[in-house]
Design goal:
By secondary structure, this protein is of the alpha/beta class. The chain is about 20% helix and about 25% strand. Strand 10, helix 4 and strand 11 form a beta-alpha-beta unit. It holds the Pfam family LRR_At1g61320_AtMIF1.
Length: about 210
């Protein structure tokens, strides 16, 4: 999507784009030309490096990276009014910068597109995203590969900060004992938690208490 036409979609409230190259100037054109846009879903799109969201109406943002190709060295997101954020990010040779996420209520985060979830890049980003963005949301969902990295960090000494979250959903197969330790660590530092959901849990053969 490389159009030079000025976008003026004054009544558009939802935008879904899949598997498409969207150049940076087009993203900027969309954000400025859709004043009442409420939901933006970019699934396996590429070609842009920055989402500077200034609209007070855009409350839901979903960005899922491609799994079979490099996405560029940087993705920067500024979203001061977004309330629901869903990101699946490929950290291989790529940096994510999240800022101005003060309005976030619900967030889902995962890693995708690479075979080694515990690379140094993934560990660094996992801590950064958790401490700066995910720590403060009321409803948190952790995808399978992100949770693997978070669990490894907890097992090897990283102390999770205390969170005020009330709802926690974890997507995991629980085939690794470190995943169980990760669940316990999240519970320990979530004193206000009211609801816990573990999706994909397979209890057979898993020992919770050693």
């Amino acid at each position: 999507m490389g159009t030079l036409t000025k976008i003026e979609w004054r009544s558009l409230t939802r935008l879904d784009i899949d598997d498409t190259e969207i150049l940076q100037h087009v993203i900027e054109n969309i954000l400025s030309g859709c004043p009442v846009l409420h939901t933006m879903d970019l699934d396996e799109c590429w070609g842009f490096s920055c989402l500077d969201i200034k609209s007070r109406n855009l409350h839901e943002l979903k960005i899922h990276d491609r799994e079979d190709a490099e996405m560029g060295p940087l993705l920067e997101i500024s979203a001061p009014y977004v309330q629901t954020l869903d990101i699946s990010f490929n950290p291989q040779g790529r940096k994510l910068v999240l800022r101005n996420t003060k309005s976030l209520v619900q967030a889902k985060f995962d890693f995708s597109g690479y075979e080694e979830p515990n690379s140094e890049e993934a560990r660094r980003l996992a801590k950064e995203v958790y401490e700066i963005t995910l720590l403060h949301v009321k409803e948190l969902m952790l995808g399978r590969f992100y949770f693997i990295v978070l669990s490894e960090l907890a097992v090897y000494g990283w102390q999770l900060p205390v969170s005020k979250r009330k709802c926690l959903t974890i997507f995991t197969e629980c085939v690794d004992k470190h995943n169980i330790s990760g669940i316990f660590a999240l519970l320990k530092y979530s004193p206000n938690l009211k609801r816990l959901a573990i999706e994909g849990f397979e209890p057979e053969g898993v020992t919770w208490l050693g």
